[in-house]
Amino acid sequence: MYNVLLVDDEPFIVDGLEILIDWAKLNLVVVGKAYNGEDALAFMKHTHVDILISDIKMPKMQGLELISQAKELNPTCKCLILSGYNDFEYVKQGIKLGIENYLTKPVNTEELTATLKDTVSKLDSSTSKVIFSPDNSEWHILRGNILSRWVNDAITSEELLNRSELLDIITDSSCYSVAIINIKLDDTIHTQVSQIYNICYNYIKSDTDIMSFEDMDGNFVLIFTQEASPERNPYIMNLLTEIYNNIQSLNVKAHITLGPDVLSYKELSMSYQKAKKLFEYFLIYPNEKVLHTAMIDEQNLNVDNLITIDHNLIASSLASRNKERLFNYIDELFEEVVTISGITPDHLKMVVVEILLNLYKSMSSQSILFQSDIINRHSKSLAEIHKINDLNTLNETLKDLFMYIIDKLNEKETHTSPVVYQILKYTHNNYNEELSLKTLSYQFNINTTYLGQLFKKETGVSFPNYLNNYRVEKAKEFLLETNLKTAQIAKKVGYVDPNYFYRIFKKYAGMSPTDYKTIKV
Question: In what residue span(s) does the Response regulatory domain sit (predicted)?
């Protein structure tokens, strides 16, 4: 199947296209979606794309510029343009870039399908002439794409096995594990990226039992396929430590994690996901060079078996500035924890750490924790936890942080400009309607780009992120206070497509609407 990337600054258009077309019937699969040209180009640098379907006018990078750079990156990529403007000048520029078609919005399904069929025929014809080998850049792009889909459990066993021989992918080992190398780059050292990746590659290029690729987050991912043995993990940990030391020699910050061993290629995604999860724990162990799952398990960091923490209540209480509700819950939680048989001071600390880690994820999704003062206060609270030896001080440390965040949120709200205040007011009253920066800019006669920048500057979060979060909070109220079906609630909070609502709710609430209602009721 051929890979398709959909790009438009209006999410509902991207999601609509994904649903509108029977991609599988055309031998196509949508491997990615982006909402601006820069993100689309970044995606194409690590994932092979056969067909790019892009809007013309977008923030950060226009569609024609994206197509031009995409062609430089992958000359075989076929490109289609979507536009709300039937401008002949755009058509001429697109023809120069070798686009397959220029389609005006709203998209005609039959015309788009016909264009895609023709494009697939061209790809079929050209693909048969390409000879893939490790010396071919296309080979490396395709291999990276397959490896990325493998660790994300986004490829069938049949397709993986079919591609494995051509792409030298090892699927017959008795043991697999995944390591992730995350580079913390400052603006002044972006030129060192290739040098850093070369360090990683030079360490593994002679070992045929290690495969590598760059994931969607820009991390360098290593897949270890050495057979199970007592020497296996010490060898891997030593290798990762050497890589870490070499990266550090460039005065670059790096975090490296190693997921658990799995015994089948079908379980590799579990090792990858657990390796990703480990990055959270560098908040607790900032001086560790490499974090391995075995190290975390030995420290009993997973407190799920001790107590169920209502992270949604904490997040929603902060969002609504409900200090009384939040503090009452913290008191009840601590009272419950101390009744657990065999509880130790370390266990108590881990309960608080678990709350802070989930708080960090929740607030980061709303860009609130990216305010430097809140980041520093959050880090300070984490550092203090390990020095605390009594329950009351733990309780107060947690409450002090929550009070600090609430004060900062209130302070930010009082400094909101009249424009953003009106946007927030309008959004709260009309969240169930079709809303976007474009519709709001038209409603309030403000430039779209300026409005987006002003909103994020004053609220700390992009408008789409704010709107989705607000709608999800309203959906939670409907779930708990009514007997409406999920599809009905989706429409009430502004989502026409129930499937899209389901994905958004799960992203922001951390669980499905059904699970949320079951747990709360």
Answer: 3-120
